[in-house]
């Protein structure tokens, strides 16, 4: 499977998504110019390492998205949802690198 970039705001659930992808066997690959943009879940669970408000997180998300687009990356939206739903969506694009290149949001 090619390696895609997976990004999103603090607290969006990226670590959990990455861990489940690893458990499902997605570890060896090469990078692609496509970014899975993990959207904010609509809440933030503060931790010792994550000291950002929801409002700051949403502003960060906008900057992050704009920067990736300006650098020429193709973004595939991974909307808020359960961990399994998000990983299933990512896998639908990446399983064996055979999925059609399309926007997860339908565009």
Question: How would you describe this structure to a colleague?
Answer:
This is AAA domain-containing protein. The protein has 107 residues and is α/β, with parallel strands linked by helices. The chain has one domain (3-97). Helices cover 36% and strands 18% of the residues. The protein is built from three helices and three strands. It has helices at 14-23, 54-70, 83-94, and strands at residues 3-8, 31-38, 74-78. A three-stranded parallel sheet has the order 1-2-3, with helices on both faces. Helix 1 links the parallel strand 1 and strand 2 (31-38). The two termini are 23 Å apart. The model is unreliable at 98-107 (pLDDT under 50).
Beta percentage is 15-25%
Radius of gyration: 14 Å
**Strands, total number:** 3
Mean of residue pLDDT? Answer: 76
Characterize the overall form.
Answer: globular
What spatial order of strands do you see in the largest sheet? 1-2-3
Total helix count?
Answer: 3
Beginning-to-end CA distance, first to last residue: 23 Å
> What characterizes the major β-sheet?
3 strands, parallel
SSE run: EHEHEH
Fraction of helical residues? 25-40%
Q: What structural class results from the helix and strand content? A: alpha/beta
Query: Spans with pLDDT under 50 lasting ≥5 residues?
Result: 98-107
Number of individual domains:
1
Protein name: AAA domain-containing protein
Organism: Herbihabitans rhizosphaerae
